[in-house]
Write a structure and sequence with these properties.
Length: about 210
């Protein structure tokens, strides 16, 4: 049902870039996941994979700058607006999924809620995002993506602080309201940040060529 577009040829898959980037990210994540097991940042099982991942990531960047159609065009990050918007989106993702790991564990391990009840109890964050999504587009067009994203990040930051003081007897209604506000902040920040990133690029940026 999608309309036909003149987007040009995608070209062959950058297999070497795919192998380098996926291996690099997997090695870094594996090294970080070993920190609780070894209780040390200097253990070989931690440092080794992380160092290997960083080297492979560097190799990917070197490769991406020298091929015509890289898996990820790292030259785009020379655009300050795009780089800042990408960093903001990364931070928002960390805040979103970080809470989605810790809050369900709290409900199940501390409050002894069932899996289904836990899923419903984390729902207010999604509802907060749902409520503000219809407004985000209009506010972004009127005030600009940067200003709307700053408001969203501010709301998200302030609404995250109360989670640090949650205890075994904290009201579930209170936690739900906090999650609802977090969802509002994420909703106000995510879409404007991504819109700002794409708006900063030239129409031909997705098909940039390496210039020697």
């Amino acid at each position: 049902m999608l309309p036909e577009t003149e987007s040009g040829e995608a070209g062959p898959l950058d297999v070497r870039g795919l192998v380098l980037l996926s291996t690099a990210s997997s090695a870094i994540v594996y090294g970080l996941s070993q920190i609780p097991t070894h209780a040390s940042l200097t253990a070989g099982a931690v440092i080794g994979p992380i160092a290997a991942g960083i080297v492979l990531a560097g190799a990917f960047c070197w490769h991406a700058l020298r091929v015509e159609r890289p898996l990820l065009d790292v030259r785009l990050y020379a655009n300050r607006v795009f780089a800042a918007a990408s960093l903001t989106t990364f931070g928002l993702g960390a805040a979103l999924f970080g809470a989605m790991i810790l809050v369900p564990l709290y409900y199940q391990e501390v409050r002894h809620e069932s899996v289904i009840a836990t899923g419903l109890l984390v729902g207010p964050q999604g509802l907060g995002m749902l409520f503000v999504m219809p407004l985000v587009g209009r506010l972004t067009e009127r005030f600009g993506g940067g200003r709307v994203a700053i408001v969203g990040v501010s709301i998200l930051s302030l609404a995250t602080i109360p989670l640090a003081f949650v205890g075994p007897s904290t009201s579930i209604v209170y936690i739900s309201l906090v999650l609802l506000l977090r969802g509002v902040g994420i909703g106000f920040a995510f879409v404007p940040a991504m819109s700002a990133a794409f708006a900063s690029l030239r129409p031909d940026s997705s098909r940039m060529r390496h210039r020697s």
